Amino acid sequence: MQLDGPTPAAVSVHWDGREGAVQLYSSPQQMPGNVAQMPSASPASLPNGVPAWDNQNVQICWQIQDAQSTCVPTVFDTGASAMSFPEGFPGTPDREVQELVSGTTITGTIDSGGQAFVSLITGEELGKNLVTVFPNTQMVNTGIGLFAEYEVLFSVQSGEISLTAHS
Length: 167
Fold this sequence. Notes:
By secondary structure, the chain is mainly beta. The protein is built from one helix and 15 strands.
């Protein structure tokens, strides 16, 4: 967003599963379906005047299987090879760093008990559907796998994020 030239109204991020091939391209401003709101960053604008958003503090309510839905800061991160939850998060194993069981359903909503924003099934493939538990963190990290399952649309002007499932 800090490059010279006209700033797009929104950008879309998708990963097709090939190493080193995350796609970033301009998208229309209209945000389809449910949207999550990124809080403003500090300072509130980038050096080129574009609004700055805190993409590491998006409030998403996550539910693992039928455990309690819990709202926590979430980072949309193409750099992490696996989705991760904080140790002690409802529905995660009691032991230290480990993986969630393959076939576990994970749902994210904008509001607790609201309509699903994202739904995933865990597996064993790093970079795709592996989900781990980490100590000493308070946030959920989506990891790159989310970008393979969904096209992630970021509105540059409003700070909204929406997901469109790939068919």
